[in-house]
Specification:
alpha/beta; globular
Length: 196
């Protein structure tokens, strides 16, 4: 698979923080992503009260939507601004606490307790800190992860999944020689080899 000039591209944490500060967040969808509504049954698989993980969650409106359905939502995002905007935009009261296992990390949790958002690098998380999940909504994470970090990312995601977990993944298809990313182009063959 030819991923063009993207193979060695690295976007730093600082660049992501800058995008949030400058509101350069074209990836955010105010109405939520139509594919989650379309494939919600696949994610839930007839189950209720699930723990659902949002990697690189930003301020995704779907977190509130799924929490309102009775699910427990956990997200991780490097931008504290994004997380605070999420709670503000939904008028959700929350409390903030340090995450003892991760230096400098914070957990912002809705006072109702069903939404917990970690402000840190996703690579600092582990199942001993956040537990395991029945479902994952990966709408912009795998395609945002630096190509050199994909294997690390997927290995982590697999350790966070329960046995009967559902993983919904959205990717983008385009000619990687014409766009440097992110979002990065992840060919289907690579997705199959990464997730097995």
């Amino acid at each position: 698979s030819d991923i063009g000039s993207q193979k060695d591209r690295v976007v730093t944490e600082e660049e992501w923080l800058q995008r949030w500060e400058m509101s350069n967040i074209g990836f955010h969808k105010e109405q939520g992503h139509p594919l989650l509504r379309k494939y919600l049954d696949v994610l839930l698989n007839g189950r209720s009260g699930l723990r659902i993980f949002f990697p690189l969650c930003g301020k995704a409106v779907e977190m509130k939507w799924l929490a309102d359905m009775g699910h427990s939502v956990v997200g991780v995002e490097v931008s504290e601004q994004a997380l605070k905007q999420f709670f503000a935009q939904h008028s959700l009261p929350y409390c903030e606490e340090p995450v003892p296992e991760i230096s400098g990390a914070k957990k912002l949790q809705s006072t109702s307790g069903n939404i917990s958002l970690y402000c840190c690098s996703i690579y600092d998380l582990s199942s001993s800190i956040v537990g395991k999940f029945d479902g994952v909504w990966d709408r912009g994470a795998l395609v945002a992860v630096n190509p050199c970090d994909r294997q690390h990312y997927v290995s982590l995601m697999i350790t966070l999944m329960e046995k009967n977990s559902s993983y919904l993944l959205v990717t983008v298809s385009y000619d990687p020689n014409k766009h440097k990313g992110p979002p990065f182009y992840v060919p289907e063959s690579e997705i199959k080899s990464l997730f097995g």
